[in-house]
Specification:
four-stranded mixed sheet; binds copper (II) ion; single chain; 8 strands; alpha/beta; about 150 residues; Immunoglobulin-like
Length: about 150
């Protein structure tokens, strides 16, 4: 590697660290619109390398990935404890609160632009029969992803 290449690589890496943003997703028993058991925002669009701080309103909520671009992006946050997750893979991530999954406590995170949502749609369609509430919101969020 030439010195210039190394220098350029360093610039690239350094700038991506500087540009990485932190987002907040609240895990709430009662949402702002009165809906029960929600991720707020439910659909979040972030850049590769950004971090999301999942903040549970109380000890009954956590955030568990159930559709990820690849296995290295899986995560499972502790109950009732704000936890930061960095998303380093481009694609669509579906997140659930484990005890409230049946109630549709689900979040959708788009990581990067022009993502392929085929896997997320397939994973969602495979399990949506087990969800009793809020299914349309997940369908809508997935439809918004381009
Ligand atoms: Cu919950």
């Amino acid at each position: 590697m030439t010195k210039l290449t190394i220098f350029s690589l360093c610039l690239l890496l350094c700038s991506s660290v500087v540009n990485a943003k932190e987002h907040i997703v609240n895990l709430k028993t009662t949402g702002n619109n009165g809906k029960m058991m929600v991720f707020e925002p439910m659909l979040l669009q972030i850049s590769v390398g950004d971090t999301v701080n999942f903040i549970p309103s109380d000890t009954s909520h956590n955030a568990v990935s159930f559709s990820v671009p690849s296995d290295k992006s899986t995560f499972n946050t502790p109950y009732g404890k704000a936890t930061k997750i960095t998303f380093s893979e481009k694609g669509v991530v579906l997140v659930k609160c484990l005890p409230h999954f049946v109630m549709g406590m689900i979040g959708v995170i788009q990581v990067g632009d022009d993502v392929d949502k085929t896997k997320a749609l397939a994973d969602w369609n495979a399990i949506k029969d087990g969800v009793a509430m809020n299914k349309e919101a997940v369908d809508k969020a997935l439809a918004k992803i381009k």
